[in-house]
Write a structure and sequence with these properties.
- The chain has about 300 residues and is of the alpha/beta class.
- About 40% of the residues lie in helices and about 25% in strands.
- It has two domains: about 1-90, ACT domain (Alpha-Beta Plaits); about 95-304, 3-Layer(aba) Sandwich (Rossmann fold).
- It is built from 13 helices and eleven strands.
- The strands form two sheets. Strands 8-7-6-5-9-10-11 form a seven-stranded mixed β-sheet, sandwiched between helices. A four-stranded antiparallel β-sheet has the order 2-3-1-4.
Length: about 300
Amino acid sequence: MTSTPDAALSAANFTAVAYGLRLEESWLKELRAAAAAAGAVLLEERSTGNGRFDVHEIDVHLPEGPDALRRAVHGLPAGAGVAVVPSALRTAGRKFLILDVDSTLIQQEVIELLAAYAGKRDEVTAVTEAAMRGELDFAQSLHARVKVLAGLPVSVIEGVRHEVLLTPGAAELVAGLKAAGHKVAAVSGGFSQILEPLAEELGLDYALANDLEIVDGKLSGRVLGDVVDRAAKESALRRWSAEQGVDLAHTVAVGDGANDLDMLAAAGLGIAFNAKPAVRAAADAAVDIPYLDVALAIAGVSAA
């Protein structure tokens, strides 16, 4: 790659953001070679990180667009990832980030924690995993899984709230985005009884999930209203970003399962976080380290 420091920012400018628990110089050399083979012109490089993971950014001019570089980096060694991000998104004054909840914002699948109280955890886990791989209709699978909760006392919800753990880096991600003036939302195929207090604690701007029906102090085994499925997640992204006046090209979506595919595709940048294979293949970037705040670096936002 030849240096062109005076290249003007344009639609052909991108940043290749490399991230991993440890980035070796030999790996970065392969990344530069892949960029050169894709016709990239080097603008600037810099290394950052927070002690838990490394980040190396290479600003590039890609006259033919990012597809060739995105294909090339998929063939690089495992152990790190690369996101090829439009400069217009990274430099946008206002961004909107939307997060899946179960196995993304939090470490667990809430339906599995609830099912454990009914002695049905293994059965429900198998159905959840198939649904997240896209092998089952999400709404139908959710109704089937919630049905096993019928008769449980409402107190189990409070018990599950205490079991839920944020994903490492989740609080830092939200705080960093909020401190920089951006908006953050969470949308879940799980349950509002868990998400709403979590959203309040984190200071999220928007939150949407399914409502568990409660009758006479017990779970009925049903959800109220329409199921929050993949179409609903995409719709929420579009609706909320429009309300905030944020161009869809300046939005980032993060998720792990088939239920997230539509919002990942609609966002300006879709990030698969420790995701199922089909989701990794469809996303713009795949993060396979356990720290959610790597999304800050990908989006070009400094940590709070």
